Every structure is written in C-alpha cells, then in structure tokens.
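Changelog-adjacent note: as of this version, every example in the card shows the full chain rather than a window. The one below runs 152 residues end to end.
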Amino acid sequence: MKFNKKITTAFIALPLLACSFSSFAMPQKAQHFAHVMSMKIFLKDVDLTPEQKAQLKDIRKTAREKNKAKREENKAQRQAQREASALIVMAPKFDEAAARKLAQEMSFRQIEKRVENMRNQNKMFNILTPEQQKQVVTNVDNLKKKVEEKMK
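Full-length structure tokens:
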C-alpha cells in the first residue's frame, strides 16, 4: 500500500517538478519581446520604405499565424513527451535507448523551430536593399561588441 502511494505521488509530482523547472526559462511573452527587440535593434537607423514595412509586417503575421495553428499539436506533443519521460525515469531499470530516442525527438522539435525562425529572418533580411543590409550588419557588429564588453 505504501509503495503504491509513493508511485502515485511520484507520478503527480514529476510533471509538476518538470513544470517548475521550465518556469526558470524565459516566459513565452518575454521570448517574443526579446525577439521583437532584437529585430528592432538590428533595424535601428535603417530607413524602411512603407512597402518594406508592410512586407516585414506580413512575414511576422504569417509566422505568428503558422505558430498559432501548430500550438495545440505542439502542446499535445509536449504532454506526451513529459509522460514518456516520467515512464523512463520511474522504470525499475533505466532504458538508455528509449531515453536517447525521446531526447532526440525533443531536440528535433527545437531544431525545426529555430530553422523556421532563421528562414523568416532571412526573408526579412532579403527585403532590404544592399545599403540597408550593410546597416544591419553594422548594427549586429555593434551589438556583438557591446556584449563582449559586458562579458569582460
């Protein structure tokens, strides 16, 4: 009886524990804010035409809609991965192959998300004229220098 209570408690506590660790990560809105701010920093001092502004806005809107459409599917995948992780952790014997497979699945989702972000950033960058692109490169270099100075 005591053993069953321990297992039940572990099944309840593990997802809560996993969620509490994820709370230390940057919240979703803060990530979006950081992304928007980085784009604003990159485009600082770049004179955009109204047409370019509209194109950039369309790219961001399309990406947002695409992410919104995948939200429920991603939520279900994350839940399934949490449950699979709990089963691996609470198994009588550790299954390294299953753990590696699950870790690869989790990494794959992250990789796909980053590739999609880079694709959108590339689209945005290619909307700019060569002079504007040079200004963005200068802004990126200046930002790198600021970060390096702070790291010293």
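Structural remarks: The two ends are 57 Å apart (CA to CA).
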